[in-house]
Amino acid sequence: MTVKSLNIFQDTGTQVLAAITGTLVAASDGMSFGWTSPMVPYLLSDETHIDVTLKQAEWLETISLLGAFCGLPFTIYFVDKIGRKKSLLLAAVVVLLNWIAIALADRVEYLFVARFFSGMAGDMSFVAAPMYIAEIADSKIRGFLSSIIYIMMLLGLLVVYCLGPFTPFYSIPITGCVLAGSQLLVFSFQPESPYYLVYKNRPEEAKESLRRLRSDKADLDAELKEISEGIERQKTEKGRPQDLILVRSNRKAIVIMTVLNIGQHMACISVMYMNLHPILNAAGSIYLDNNITAIVFALIMLIAAVFASFTIDKFGRKIILIVSSVLSGLCLLALSVYFHLQYLEIDVSSVSWIPIASVLIYAAAFKYGIGLVPIVITAEIFPAKMKALGMTIADVMFVIGGLLSIQLYQILHKLGMFVPFYVFTLSAFFVALYSVFCIPETKGKSLEQIQLMLKGEKGKVDEGKVNTAYTADESKV
User: Fold this and answer.
1) Of 68, 88, 156, 359, which residue is most buried, by most CB within 10 angstroms?
2) Shortest CA distance to 83 belongs to which of 234, 235, 195, 208?
């Protein structure tokens, strides 16, 4: 890493600390998301301490996503009512209670309830955390900080893959409790988002928040004025739900986040997280133990996400998204062809390394872009008054994408493992094409400049000008 790249982190230590401590719950959510891959084989084995049928095991995969869907109204309410920071703390409390319930469970019904509420908590954290980070971060490191939530989630996934096959059932819940408890202890002392405080007409608290988040050299009054003017302009745009469709910039934002959030799931990531061990078993590779492959898979994803977080503000969101989608599609195509040949009873023993190689390259390619960029862009493209609703709908699409991909896999793989993988391949290539023609580049833009760009006011974006008199009527078709 060059001295120039390190300079972007100068005077941003407080922002980095707030982002890390605010996303510890995402690590716990990553643990919950990947929990079924190593634990369902245990629950279906003779060694289990909880009687679980195959059908119940399948529901353990989807129940958390259903919980996320049902938690959407609460997410919309809390992120605007009590704020981004308190919403994250509330999510941490729920996660802590869920892991305690799983650790003590002796019936599958307790697991269902705990995973349902973990989905609700994960929904709140993945809406509140990107909002919080986008609103506290300097534009020069906003992409890096926004990506931390995915890094945390991957850390949780790695922990599950490392602990699940080799340690007692209760070791994962104990680790989850430690993470959630740490967030409650440390993040409680971090500042609230200055954007949220200005939006709630608490300018003095907003200035104090900025003072804690910015360097001593920063012009707090100027930044507070810019935030206030942006909020005031955005308040002229009615915050009605229908304005997500009626206002052109909001409509463009909603389409972008829908394609990206559904697209990343339809590019197979949820299926990989929750079914990696069965997929590797079906491939029949003899080159590497499946448990070790799963650990390497999560580790590669983590390394790719860290690398992407350091380069997303240098190369930009768009090019990373395109390259990642194409490479992910090629890896999924290789898996599709392998499983198809296997289905046709063609001897593939001489190339049985292909599934492992494809899965591991996919891990790096996917998480470098398509698995990380969507949450960064989604946190940037909604105006203040529509941010809570827009981010929550983005999470709806994320959940729908997850449910759709998992259900398609569970139905189509019975026709042959290659069938769902061909669908996932096409989805990855579609995201690449959409990114080429429809995704704007938000690198280095302030949140206000991004809004002007979505409205088509390119000249004002280039000049860095903000029109505080802009009204919603001007942006309607």
Assistant:
1) 88
2) 195
